[in-house]
Each structure stands twice: as structure tokens, then as C-alpha cells.
């Protein structure tokens, strides 16, 4: 406990059980807020939401066996999205390890592929050291989850805590952050020679707190900027240089820009398959500058012509300085911008407006933007609503958009909102949920009520697991298989049963005012919004195809 | 470009170095001697689809450090990517991709060969040619220890196999850099 406090931990999410009783006993008078979640997966995602909203390390506790295995999805999620998190699991007593004891699970072994690092305590005196090492590993370099597994008898031992004075030094862990200045100079000179450059930015900009530095680079010339799902908010969506999100559900302009660029500057992004589509046909005319703190990301999927290993916050200002020093004539970008603007004009984001009060899901996101002034922390689940939020909300600031990108975990949104609200109590926190997803972790409504965490859940209810339905419609001949939500709960009553406020909206005419009313209601609120059921999310690059095979929303012939 | 402006980098001059070397690589990896380290490395290889040809683990002159020597095929795997992934493991201290010309690599193998009275002499002769040692003799078998490069061991295997190879055990290669002078 003392070690956790020394690391500045103020909040922990978790559930007690037999194997972590000693730890929970210590929590009683530790002066740390413990949020008692209703399922360990919820606790894990809450820790992620906490970390993503604040940049601080999120901490979740669980007991041994099923408590620990329930955390696995959250741990894998934190690994994929590089979320600085620490998971502390109880373990059976030392003498029971390996005997299939009651509530024993080899959580260390189970999570090996999903952790940045993990420790199992074998001597109580290791605990402070491991806690500090865990924070160091989780929060530096490319952030990620660290697991600390503590057998019950060892967490029980009384040890003296001596405050740590020396910084953590691990022989096998030395992230390089500066960026090689020679490489940065070469990169600046290549950018200066590019006619069709684009900045392709990812979650690394958010994790690296480098939004300001990115803006400076983009402003050093008229560089167009596109962002991955995880990078949204790292560059203001309202900036005229911003082309929108790229990838499978990205804008036509962003994807065609990548397809036609002669130089792509990847900044804290990892060329995921949802970005590249068919790898052989990705950005066929481009050379690549790849800036990333994780050397293993460079040339993993796409060979980098100019690799730069470093922290974007340190590298970008150097790159901007080197580039400015070249005093390049920016008129070389005129033709490129003419082309980009033409694509933007010809292929804006588009959906057919709803008629007779029908709420189109895209309209719901636009209404959410207006109701929140575009300034809320939005968490989401996974699916169509997530993509529409990414397309239509227009995030202008970092750490406002919290979702599960890499792992794509349905049920992420509500517990992540719990974590975000605990981290940022002054901010408006809205979980934009899907009905397929919300039910997977809806038990956390009880956490919201009993812990007085006033998150607002705006449910985009279309009665389907919409993205799966869309794929079955488009790629499986509309043979719908287990995608209808069928007997969904009455969400208003469900909210009320939990002691939250339930509201419903079925018409676009009063959607925005209902949202405002929900936001102004004290305590947690669940607003069930009935949207058009079989709306598809466009544009879309069909899986395994190239950017130029993108499909746009069909237009009604009038 | 105006006179006096710095030389810019022409995009057409930029190239990505080839990822596949096309040859066998020996990686000599120093790891912390802690529980679970081998599981982390083995797990990493299986998860990323890297195929280990041989693997040898042993202590070093420092009891807190173990050495893992593994060989893998650089025609199939981008070695650079393999080493970068390995470096992400916190318990991995140092990785050396051994240069073939500057490396002495050895492997040991033991062959249990069926040896009836009539071919016993011939097998013993093979062993002498390969500078191998006979470590066990029984009524129907001879067991021979061979040390050398992987090629030598494979050559010996081809010689004795026709006589009836009962069992073969190999250690996997270990390697050390040649002295520099």
C-alpha cells in the first residue's frame, strides 16, 4: 500500500476475494479510494478508462482464480492499445501453488502474451521493489499493462516500507526516447522534397502527450494530417489541415491521400490491417518515415525508408526545427492541396437524412456533439456506433475519445466511462454505447450508482449487433445469423432497477433536448435512443482490399 | 533549388533494406536467470510465428545471467524483427546475432547404433574418422558421442543410419565469438 501511495495512486478499481484479503484489509485505512466494481473485467476496463482520460497509471485489483481470469480481456485490451495499467492479482498461498488449489489459476502464465511485463512475488520483501518497477515499466517507453501476482501468505507478511530514493533501473529495459538526430535531419530533407506528403498520426501522439508538438509540425508548412481511430483528438478535427480518420471506415479524402502520397510520415502509428487494407497495395507511391517509441513497430508491417526510434514528444520538435531551417518553398504543395480539396468536396461524409422523426445513428452523434458542446469525454463500445462517433463527433482535444481499438472489446464503454469519470470528475463523461455491447458489462451501472459516479450512457439502440449484421448483409448474402438482439431488456426499467435514471428517445425532433436533459440530470443516466435499425457504416474499405476499392454510402435516387 | 540551400533528400533515392538474409542465424541471448524467462521467449516465438530450429540454454560465468543460444532460418524470418521483439522482453539483457565468419559454433550429439558383430568394426572406424568417442558398448548397440558443427553431425548421421540408428540425441548449437587480434 505504501508503495502504491508513493507512486501517487489515488484510485483503485477492483473486487476482493479470498486470496487478496490481506491487501483489502490494508485498503481500509490506506487513504486510497477503492471503487468496488461488479465484475473484474469492468474493473480492468475502468483502470484503462482512468489511464486514457488522465494519462496516469490505472490500477485494478482482483483475487486469484476466476477473479484473475476475468481480468484477462482487459489486460489484452490494454496491451493492444498501449494503456499504462497495473493489475494486481491475489494468488493462492505459496505452498498451494501448483497443486490445483481452490481458486488457483496460473494467471502469470495465462497472461504472458498480453503483458508488457509481469511479476510473481516469491518473498514479501520484493513487493515494494516490484511495485515501483511495475509503475516504471507500465508508464515509460511504449506504455502497457503490468501484472503483479501476489500469493496470499506473502501479501499478509508485515514488512517495513522504506521510501525509494533511487530511480528504477532495469538492465533489460532502456527505452530510447531522443530520436537519432541524423535520421531526423534526413527526414526533414525528405519532407522538404516531397510533393504529396501526409502526416499519418496514431495513438502514440495521445500517449506521448504530443498534440501541441504535432500541431507545430503541421503548421510548419501546410501538411495534411490524417489520424487513426486511436489518434483522434491528437490533432484538432476542426483544423483545416485535417482530412479526417483513415482506414476501413475513414474518409475518402484521407484514404485517397494515403493512396496517392509520395511521402507518408507515420507518427506513433503502427500500420494496423484496419489502416492498410491489402498490404501489397497500400500506398503504392509512397516512401515512409516512421517515428515510433517501439523499435519493433518499425518495419513490422511496412518497411520504413527512414526509421526514427523515439518519443514523439521529443522527436517532433526536432523535426519541426530541422524542417523550418530548410526554408522550403511551400508552393510545391499547391497542386496536392488542390487535389485533396477536390476529394473532400466530391466525397464528404454522407448519410441519407431520416424522415418522419427517424433517428439516423450519424444524426445521433451530431446531436451528441451539439448537446455536449463538442467537449465531453466520450467512451464507446465496439461496432458501428464506435465508427460513427469517430467519423462524426469531431474531437478537437486529446484524451477525449476513449475506446477499444486494437482488441475491439465489446462492453468496454461503460466501465471505461466509470474510470474516466473517476479520473476527471469535473469533465462531462458520456458513454456512447451499442446495445449489443452495453449488455456485456451493464452490471457496472450498479457501480455508477453505489459509488456515485455520474456517467451518462447514451445507448444507440438499433436492435442488432450492427457491425456484424452489416458484414452479414454485405459479404454473406444477408444471411443474418445470431445478430438480432431479440429480447433485449427494457433499458429504461433496467436503469431504474439499478437505481439510475432511465430515459428514452424515439424521435429526432426531441433528441438533442432529451440529451441535454439527460446531461443535466444528477447521477448516472441511461438514455435509450431508438435509431434506424439497418443503417450501414460508410465509407468502407471491404476487408482485405485496397483504399481505392472503398465503398461509399449509396445515395437515394430522387 | 537556390544556391547555398542544403542538399535535400531525393525520395527516389530512399530504399528499404531487405528483411530476409537467406541464411541460418545463431542468436546468442543473455537473459536474467529468473523463473519463467524461457516461457516468455518460447511464447513470443510461437505467438509471432517464428520457428526455432535449435535451442540451448545454460548458465554463464555470472550466476544471475543465463545464456540462450538459438538458431533460426533467416530465409523465412526477418531476423531484425525477431531481435526487436525479443528486446521488448524486460528479462532479455543482450542479443548477439553471431557473424558466421567470426564465430565458433558447436553442437554435441549422441548416436545409439545397432552394432552386430559383423559391422561393429566398420562403425568404430566411422567414429575414428569423425573423431567421435565411443561412450557405451552393449551386446547389440554402440553409443557414440560426436561434437562439431551441425553439418558434421548430420554427415555422421548419414553414415551410421544404414546400420540401424536406434536413437539420436542432439543438444542444439552453442556458439562463441572468435577472439579478436
Describe the SSE topology:
The complex is a heterodimer of chains A (558) and B (181).
Chain A: H1 2-6, E1 11-14, H2 21-27, E2 33-36, H3 40-54, E3 58-62, H4 66-70, H5 72-80, E4 85-91, H6 107-110, E5 117-120, H7 126-139, E6 145-151, H8 152-156, H9 181-193, E7 197-201, H10 203-207, H11 211-219, E8 225-227, E9 242-245, H12 252-260, E10 263-267, H13 273-276, E11 287-292, E12 306-309, H14 312-326, H15 334-346, H16 361-372, E13 377-380, H17 384-392, E14 401-402, H18 413-423, E15 429-434, H19 435-438, H20 444-450, E16 456-461, H21 466-475, H22 491-498, E17 501-505, H23 511-520, E18 525-530
Parallel strand pairs in A: 1-2, 1-3, 3-4, 4-6, 5-6, 7-8, 7-10, 8-9, 10-11, 11-12, 13-14, 13-15, 15-16, 16-18, 17-18
Chain B: E1 24-32, H1 37-47, E2 54-59, E3 65-73, H2 79-87, E4 92-97, E5 103-114, H3 117-129, E6 133-137, E7 141-148, H4 150-160, E8 165-170, E9 174-177
Antiparallel strand pairs in B: 1-3, 1-4, 2-3, 5-7, 5-8, 5-9, 6-7
Major protein interface: A-B, 34 and 32 residues
Please state the oligomeric state of the protein chains shown. Answer: heterodimer
Integer average pLDDT of chain A: 94
What's the order of the H and E elements of chain B?
EHEEHEEHEEHEE
Mean pLDDT of chain B: 91
Give Rg of chain A in angstroms: 24 Å
Shape of chain A: globular
3D structure, described in words:
- The complex is a heterodimer of chains A (558) and B (181).
- In chain A, helix 7 links the parallel strand 5 and strand 6 (145-151).
- Chain A is of the alpha/beta class.
- Chain A folds into 3 domains: 2-156, Thiamin diphosphate (ThDP)-binding fold, Pyr/PP domains (Rossmann fold); 181-346, Rossmann fold (3-Layer(aba) Sandwich); 361-537, Thiamin diphosphate (ThDP)-binding fold, Pyr/PP domains (Rossmann fold, 3-Layer(aba) Sandwich), CATH 3.40.50.
- In chain A, helix 3 (40-54) runs parallel beside helix 5 (72-80) and helix 12 (252-260) packs antiparallel against helix 15.
- Chain A is globular.
- Chain B has 181 residues and is of the alpha+beta class.
- In chain B, the strands form 2 sheets. In chain B, strands 5, 6, 7, 8 and 9 form a 5-stranded antiparallel beta sheet that branches. Chain B has a 4-stranded antiparallel beta sheet with strand order 2-3-1-4, covered by helices on one side.
- The longest helix of chain B is centred in the C-terminal third of the chain and has 13 residues, at 117-129.
- The relative contact order of chain B is 0.18.
- The model of chain B is unreliable at 1-5 (pLDDT under 50).
Amino acid at each position: 500500500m505504501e508503495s502504491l501511495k508513493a507512486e501517487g495512486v489515488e484510485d483503485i478499481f477492483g473486487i476482493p476475494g479470498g486470496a487478496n484479503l490481506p491487501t483489502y484489509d490494508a485498503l481500509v485505512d490506506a487513504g486510497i479510494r477503492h471503487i468496488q466494481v461488479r465484475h473484474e473485467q469492468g474493473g480492468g476496463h475502468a483502470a484503462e478508462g482512468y489511464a486514457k482520460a488522465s494519462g496516469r497509471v490505472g490500477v485494478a485489483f482482483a483475487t486469484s482464480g476466476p477473479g484473475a481470469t476475468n481480468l484477462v480481456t482487459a489486460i489484452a485490451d490494454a496491451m493492444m492499445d498501449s494503456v499504462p495499467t497495473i493489475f494486481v492479482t491475489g494468488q493462492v498461498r505459496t505452498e498451494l501453488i501448483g497443486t490445483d488449489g481452490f481458486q488457483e489459476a496460473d494467471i502469470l502464465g495465462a497472461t504472458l502474451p498480453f503483458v508488457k511485463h509481469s511479476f510473481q512475488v516469491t518473498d514479501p520483501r520484493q513487493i515494494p521493489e516490484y511495485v515501483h518497477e511495475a509503475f516504471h515499466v507500465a508508464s515509460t517507453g511504449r506504455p502497457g499493462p503490468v501484472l503483479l501476482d501476489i500469493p496470499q501468505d506473502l501479501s499478509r507478511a508485515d514488512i517495513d516500507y522504506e521510501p525509494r530514493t533511487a530511480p528504477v533501473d532495469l538492465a533489460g529495459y532502456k527505452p530510447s526516447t531522443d530520436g537519432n538526430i541524423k535520421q531526423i535531419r534526413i527526414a526533414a530533407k525528405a519532407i522538404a522534397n516531397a510533393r504529396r506528403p501526409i502526416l499519418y498520426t496514431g495513438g502514440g501522439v495521445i500517449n506521448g502527450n504530443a498534440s501541441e508538438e504535432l500541431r507545430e509540425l503541421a503548421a510548419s508548412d501546410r501538411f495534411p494530417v490524417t489520424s487513426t481511430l486511436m489518434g483522434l483528438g491528437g490533432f484538432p478535427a476542426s483544423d483545416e489541415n485535417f482530412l479526417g480518420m483513415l482506414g476501413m471506415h475513414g474518409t475518402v479524402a484521407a484514404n485517397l491521400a494515403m493512396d496517392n502520397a509520395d511521402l507518408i510520415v507515420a507518427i506513433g502509428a503502427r500500420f494496423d490491417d484496419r489502416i492498410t487494407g491489402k498490404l501489397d497495395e497500400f500506398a503504392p507511391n509512397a516512401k515512409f518515415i516512421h517515428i515510433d517509441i517501439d523499435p519493433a513497430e518499425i518495419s513490422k508491417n511496412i518497411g520504413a525508408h527512414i526509421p526514427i526510434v523515439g518519443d514523439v514528444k521529443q522527436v517532433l520538435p526536432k523535426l519541426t526545427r530541422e524542417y523550418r531551417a530548410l526554408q522550403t518553398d511551400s508552393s510545391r504543395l499547391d497542386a496536392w492541396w488542390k487535389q485533396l480539396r477536390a476529394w473532400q468536396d466530391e466525397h464528404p461524409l454522407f448519410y441519407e437524412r431520416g424522415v418522419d422523426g427517424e433517428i439516423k445513428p450519424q444524426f445521433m452523434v451530431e446531436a451528441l456533439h451539439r448537446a455536449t458542446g463538442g467537449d465531453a469525454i466520450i467512451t464507446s463500445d465496439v461496432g458501428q456506433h464506435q465508427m460513427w462517433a469517430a467519423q462524426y463527433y469531431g474531437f478537437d482535444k486529446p484524451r477525449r475519445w476513449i475506446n477499444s481499438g486494437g482488441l475491439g472489446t465489446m462492453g468496454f464503454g461503460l466501465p471505461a466511462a466509470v474510470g474516466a469519470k473517476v479520473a476527471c470528475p469535473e469533465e462531462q463523461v458520456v458513454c456512447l454505447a451499442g446495445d449489443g455491447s452495453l449488455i456485456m458489462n451493464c452490471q457496472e451501472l450498479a457501480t455508477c450508482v453505489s459509488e456515485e459516479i455520474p456517467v451518462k450512457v447514451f445507448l444507440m439502440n438499433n436492435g442488432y449487433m450492427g457491425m456484424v449484421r452489416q458484414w452479414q448483409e454485405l459479404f454473406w448474402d444477408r444471411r443474418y445469423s445470431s445478430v438480432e438482439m431479440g429480447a433485449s431488456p427494457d433499458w429504461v426499467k433496467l436503469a431504474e432497477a439499478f437505481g439510475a435514471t432511465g430515459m428514452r428517445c424515439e424521435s429526432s425532433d426531441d433528441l438533442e433536448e432529451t440529451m441535454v436533459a439527460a446531461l443535466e440530470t444528477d447521477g448516472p443516466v441511461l438514455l435509450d435512443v431508438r435509431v434506424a435499425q439497418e443503417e450501414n457504416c460508410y465509407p468502407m474499405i471491404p476487408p482485405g482490399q485496397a483504399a481505392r476499392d472503398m465503398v461509399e454510402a449509396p445515395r437515394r435516387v430522387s | 533549388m537556390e544556391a547555398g540551400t542544403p542538399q535535400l533528400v531525393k525520395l527516389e533515392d530512399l530504399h528499404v533494406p531487405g528483411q530476409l538474409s537467406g541464411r541460418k542465424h545463431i542468436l546468442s541471448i543473455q537473459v536474467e536467470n529468473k523463473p519463467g524467462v524461457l516461457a516468455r521467449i518460447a511464447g513470443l516465438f510461437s505467438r509471432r510465428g517464428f520457428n526455432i530450429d535449435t535451442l540451448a540454454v545454460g548458465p554463464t560465468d555470472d550466476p544471475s545471467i543465463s545464456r540462450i543460444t538459438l538458431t533460426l532460418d533467416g530465409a523465412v524470418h526477418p531476423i531484425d524483427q525477431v531481435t526487436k521483439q525479443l528486446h521488448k522482453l524486460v528479462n532479455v539483457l543482450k542479443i548477439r546475432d553471431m557473424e558466421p565468419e567470426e564465430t565458433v559454433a558447436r553442437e554435441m550429439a549422441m548416436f545409439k547404433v545397432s552394432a552386430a558383430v559383423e559391422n561393429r568394426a566398420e562403425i568404430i572406424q566411422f567414429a575414428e574418422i569423425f573423431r567421435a568417442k565411443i561412450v557405451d558398448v552393449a551386446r547389440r548397440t554402440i553409443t557414440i558421442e560426436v561434437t562439431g558443427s551441425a553439418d558434421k553431425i548430420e554427415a555422421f548421421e548419414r553414415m551410421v543410419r544404414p546400420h540401424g540408428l536406434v536413437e539420436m540425441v542432439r543438444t542444439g548449437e552453442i556458439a562463441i565469438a572468435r577472439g579478436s587480434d
